[in-house]
Amino acid sequence: MMRTIRSFVRRAGRITMSQQAALDNLSSTYVLPEKTVIDWDSAFARSGAPRHVEIGFGMGDALCSMAQAHPERDYLGIEVHTAGVGRVLAHLHKFALHHVRVCCDDAVLVLREQLPAHSLDAVYIYFPDPWHKKRHHKRRLIQPEFIQLLATRLKPQAHLYLATDWQDYAQQMLEVLEASAEFTNLNGAGQFAPRNAERPLTKFEQRGQRLGHGVWDLVYQRLSLPPQS
Ligand SMILES: C[S@@+](CC[C@H](N)C(=O)[O-])C[C@H]1O[C@@H](n2cnc3c(N)ncnc32)[C@H](O)[C@@H]1O
């Protein structure tokens, strides 16, 4: 049987009581069922809102802050780390953010099995696991096959936002996306982007800035689909 290489390891990790309570009580409101094609209008109880997805939201700082700033958009967060999901659910409930839903599964499966073709307006992938050892590079999320799959789920003109604090991963992101015929770099071929102001400055990034570590942002746009012949 073919072994699938995953971009994550499920961390046992500690879950706080409030995260566990949120998972127990709020999952039925915010978490979408696995392995089921997402009917966006019915899941969000409205239609016509732009559809934004964050992959690997971690503890959810960016997802929650973007959702708070943009009630006019629908947000779907995808994450396998249960503590982070619990934290986000508690936040959504506290701030009555009814325009956010969560999938707790491998983003590759969610994209492949749950998200309809050409349905998304924007995707964010902030600080994906760097898998810094060379023998682990095959686990990195940003690879040609993943970007190919992602492209099939984006609407024409949709935006893809990436950020990493690992220089060689930033370079890999640039190479993979520049080589893709499906995307154009909004900052010019081969260029990194200015820091996206919508991305909250997390403690982790502030610490990196203090220590003089770099962060590299990239913004790409999905090219229009070729006309049907
Ligand atoms: C280094 S953390 C960064 C989290 C967050 N984006 C941030 O900026 O703080 C990467 C996150 O991506 C999640 N992740 C990695 N691969 C994933 C996948 N295939 N599907 C869903 N989540 C994934 C991990 O569980 C982890 O929480």
Blueprint of the fold:
Layout lengths: L16 H14 L9 H5 L6 E5 L5 H9 L4 E5 L3 H13 L5 E4 L3 H8 L5 E7 L17 H10 E11 L2 H13 L3 E3 L17 H8 L5 E7 L7
Parallel strand pairs: 1-2, 1-4, 2-3, 4-5
Antiparallel strand pairs: 5-7, 6-7
Molecular structure report:
The protein has 229 residues and is an alpha/beta fold. The chain has one domain (48-222): 3-Layer(aba) Sandwich (Rossmann fold), CATH 3.40.50.150. Helices cover 35% and strands 18% of the residues. It has eight helices and seven strands. It has a seven-stranded mixed beta sheet, with helices on both faces. Strand 2 (74-78), helix 4 and strand 3 (100-103) form a beta-alpha-beta unit. It is globular. Bound molecules: S-adenosylmethionine. Residues 7-8, 56-58, 78-81, 84, 106-108, 126-129, 141, 202 line the site of S-adenosylmethionine.
Order of helices and strands: HHEHEHEHEHEHEHE
Characterize the main sheet. 7 strands, mixed
**Distinct helical segment count:** 8
| CATH topology category name | Rossmann fold
Silhouette: globular
Low-confidence blocks of residues: none
Task: List the strand order in the largest sheet.
Answer: 3-2-1-4-5-7-6
- CATH class reads Alpha Beta
- Distance between the first and last residues' Cα: 39 Å
* Range of helix content: 25-40%
Oligomer: single chain
* Secondary-structure content class: alpha/beta
Would you count the extended β strands for me? Answer: 7
Which small molecules are bound? Answer: S-adenosylmethionine
Rg to the nearest angstrom?
17 Å
Which strand-content bin applies to the residues? Answer: 15-25%
CATH superfamily: Vaccinia Virus protein VP39
CATH architecture: 3-Layer(aba) Sandwich
Number of domains in the coordinates?
1
Determine the mean pLDDT.
94
